[in-house]
What does this fold into?
Amino acid sequence: KQEVTQIPAALSVPEGENLVLNCSFTDSAIYNLQWFRQDPGKGLTSLLLIQSSQREQTSGRLNASLDKSSGRSTLYIAASQPGDSATYLCAVISGGSNYKLTFGKGTLLTVNP
Amino acid sequence: NAGVTQTPKFRVLKTGQSMTLLCAQDMNHEYMYWYRQDPGMGLRLIHYSVGEGTTAKGEVPDGYNVSRLKKQNFLLGLESAAPSQTSVYFCASSPRASVQETQYFGPGTRLLVL
It folds into this structure.
């Protein structure tokens, strides 16, 4: 059974700092890996989707990498801003299913002004 | 486009009562999903649909039923609510299988069962 772990569970940084969020998964036979953002009391917003054949994806100040063989992904946020404060969720598609997302529990990020 | 909308936003039920959560999407997506989010558990898939008239069980389907009579709507029913069903429920949709596409999420429905 696929399990997704995110470390750390919570992170507090000063504005302007570069930071890395970590995600690991137990079954390396994934189809893709996705990073989502969740604001308090809101739904999830997709940030980046990395196909299993890709090594990284970039969107603005965000860069996500994927190392399928080691079962790891990182989300790099450059020059963090208070508006980046949210919970970041990692999810993978795996196990012969083409739809079922397995989610990690998330990292709660706080960027202090 | 409104995207994915959910009705109601918040509801309080007594144990044994029934209710239906409505999800609607205006993006002409084929796939729709219902998740629940609980503290310390992450999001878990309840039921899903790969097209109008189809439904299938996800990871935690017990105590829930679903229907997809129209392509744009996906209903989640609780026939006899239990306190263990207190949770935040999210609906999502995707144009096709999520191997190629991400899922688009609604704002959630907070359900409290007393």
